[in-house]
From TrEMBL:
Pfam families: OEP. Belongs to the outer membrane factor (OMF) (TC 1.B.17) family. It is found in: Cell outer membrane. It comes from the Bacteria. GO terms for cellular component: cell outer membrane; efflux pump complex. The keyword Transport applies. This is Transporter. The keyword Lipid biosynthesis does not apply. One of its GO terms (molecular function) is efflux transmembrane transporter activity. InterPro entries: OMP_efflux (IPR003423), TolC-like (IPR051906).
Length: 413
């Protein structure tokens, strides 16, 4: 109950301050593709109900009025009226093909349920990636603002040294230009954040502002590649869906063969008729029909062979999917390890660049270094900070992609 109240408060607020868990819940309720998938499931369920009803009786009311000539009597020929009204009930009480079709519908329902889970996992990963990128963009903007403060500090030092006659006006102009460049970088970062936020809003089907309430981690523990592959082959929805396609292909073969099996139809009718509107004459009729195709020039045989080939194609596709998933897991595992190594290098690079910038700034203030060296160290520090943030974002996205490839992401609808 608390989660539901929290979600309602979240939806009615001015915007979303979103964790990954809240992202999961919001996607379940808001995403249009998920809603569409549920409509598809409802459609398949209704189709099954419709096929089951084929065994139920159908009632028809019939009425007719006619006038014909000649009607011959002892008095001669004349015009005659005929009025008829009645009810007919017909039921296909046994049909092997319809029974198999109901079984196919049951398999299709299971397949659609799995497809909803697969669709949700795909969208969930996409949403997580956007949320992590949004957090990275927010960090980048914070860095840009910090860089702007550093640029202003450099300008202030250059201006002070110029006022003291220690440097030329060129240093002041270069420092001022560096401020404008940093402002442009800040504007670009804010624009990139807006693009990411728009993409996330589109995924969430909302116009409300979104902020990322996530922590970018640099410490993840994952199983071995072998264990991840094993999990993927057990949990990936694509494999379960493909196995159901094989089951459907088997039932399609059975459905083709069922055309040569007998079907039984029962009908009953009650009519009243007369030459006037009294409907005084009654007519009852009961009928049981057996329909059995005994020879169709081998048409069913070849249709069954064609359906068997479709099953073989589905079995080959299952094997292809297994190989594809193995490769996907191993590739994701490699990407994660590379991202982890890149982050370690970026961390060392950032520490080195920070110390270099601080030392060069101090040397410039003491007059033992020039502005060119200071700006070079400053730009190196800026690049190192951005590089570290980008690699931190990449590592977090790589982690969730690895979980998704192994069927371990969770968030099943």
């Amino acid at each position: 109950m608390r989660k539901i109240i929290a979600l309602l408060l979240l939806l009615t607020a001015n915007g979303y301050s979103m964790t990954i868990t809240e992202l999961q819940e919001t996607l379940k309720n808001n995403n249009l593709e998920i809603k569409q998938s549920f409509k598809n499931l409802e459609s398949v369920k209704f189709q099954k109900k419709a096929d089951i009803r084929k065994f139920f009786p159908i009632l028809n009311f019939q009425a007719s009025a006619s006038r014909f000539y000649p009607y011959t009597t002892t008095m001669g020929e004349s015009w005659e009226n005929d009025f008829t009204a009645g009810i007919t009930a017909t039921a296909n009480i046994w049909n092997f093909q319809t029974k198999t079709k109901v079984n196919i519908d049951s398999v299709q329902i299971k397949s659609q349920q799995l497809n909803i889970d697969k669709t949700f996992e795909d969208i969930y990963l996409q949403g997580i990636s956007f949320l992590i990128q949004l957090k990275g963009a927010e960090k980048t903007i914070a860095l840009r603002k910090k860089e702007l403060e550093n640029a202003k500090k450099i300008y202030k030092v250059a201006k002070s040294k110029y006022d003291q006659g220690l440097v030329l006006i060129t240093d002041v102009l270069k420092a001022r230009a560096n401020i404008e460049k940093t402002k442009s970088n800040l504007i670009a970062s804010e624009g990139e954040k807006e693009k990411i936020e728009t993409a996330l809003q589109n995924l969430l089907n909302t116009d409300k502002p979104v902020t990322a309430d996530v922590k970018l981690s640099n410490n993840f523990t994952i199983p071995s590649a072998k264990e991840l592959v094993k999990e993927a082959l057990k949990k990936r929805k694509e494999l379960a869906i493909q196995k159901l396609k094989i089951k459907t292909a088997e039932l399609n073969i059975q459905s083709v063969k069922d055309t040569n099996k007998p079907s039984i139809t029962a009908s009953a009718s009650y009519f009243r008729e007369s030459s006037d509107l009294s409907f005084k004459n009654e007519n009852y009729n009961l009928q049981l029909s057996l329909n059995w195709k005994i020879f169709d020039s081998f048409q069913t045989k070849y249709e069954a062979l064609s359906a068997e080939k479709e099953k073989e194609i589905a079995e080959i596709e299952l094997k292809r999917l297994e190989n594809q998933i193995k490769k996907e897991v191993l590739d994701s595992y490699t990407d994660f390890q590379i991202s982890k190594a890149n982050l370690e290098n970026a961390k060392s690079y950032l520490e080195f660049a920070r110390k270099t910038f601080e030392r060069t700034l101090n040397e410039y203030e003491l007059g033992v270094s020039d502005l060119v060296s200071l700006l070079s160290a400053y730009n190196e520090y800026v690049n190192a900070e951005e590089n570290y943030t980008n690699n931190l974002v990449n590592l977090n996205i790589a982690y969730y992609k690895l979980l998704k490839s192994a069927g371990m992401l969770g968030g099943t609808k």
